[in-house]
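Predict structure. Chain length: 323.
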Amino acid sequence: MASNKLTKQNLVDYTQDQVTNLYKLQTLKEQRESLKEEITLLEEGNKKKDSKYSEKAKEFISNKMSKMSGEDKPQDQKVAIAMSMARKKGLKVPEEKKTNENILSEEVKNQEKIIRILSDNENFALIGGSETKRTLDFIINELGSKNILVITAATSYKEDAEKKYLKRFNELGCVTDFIHTSINDDVDTEENLNKLNNADTIFFTGGDQSILTKCYLGTSFLDEMRKRVSEGIALIGTSAGAMAMSKNMITGGDETPIMGKGLSIIPDIIIDTHFKERNRNNRLEMAVSYTPKKIGLGISEDTVIIFKGKNVLTFGNGKIKVF
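Prediction complete.
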């Protein structure tokens, strides 16, 4: 394991992960001092090994980190933002981690814990939020979706969601329809039930999972959707849309989770999204401790875990952790 202390030795092999660990473990004052020390030591390391950063990149990242010091963001997110901004400016910084298609992360390689609660005919894709076009394209192609019903109940930006997903799914040759209501009494209409019956895939957008569950719990539409899912229709959820599939659903909270009633579509898994970016490890671990027979699944942004019957695969740039 790499040391969290900055030394000439470990900076020769300096990586983005070390920067992330540094900012997680040190105070704001130490961060500022260490950032100056980091740049100095990197310069010394360059005498033995080519640096992964240009001089302008180091200066740019240092300035951006100082400006973000008062912002309420996780330190690893600030590092990622500063490096992304530097990268967009064409400055020399380490390349982003490449996506490993169809390769389960270390935490998911032991699949037995998940497989035992999956059903042969059910197909799910759980996204950690902020999915890129590449990730979404992979999901749709993997699931073989042709007729997609997008449910936007969770989001307040329904028109924006429609424009985004209509364009994306149409480019993939899919027929796309929408249900925009966030009102429980407006769900069980003949029109909405017909849309459900015509779909081979349902897509829950992100937003607020509590609004989504309040809208659909107790409806005939949800009963019919569960039936269709058991028969093989695919169900995709991103961010809040993924979290709502739990029975014991996380509705909020930082370190201590606030729990509520989910849609119980995947009842044995408690799902948390934006997992790494918003430091939700402790929150999910505590949520699972409340219901020890449940499995916790933490999914980072632009990362998906797909269940096709009892087959499990992942795709994306982030990590997935199982509790």
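Summary: The first strand starts at residue 123 and ends at 127.
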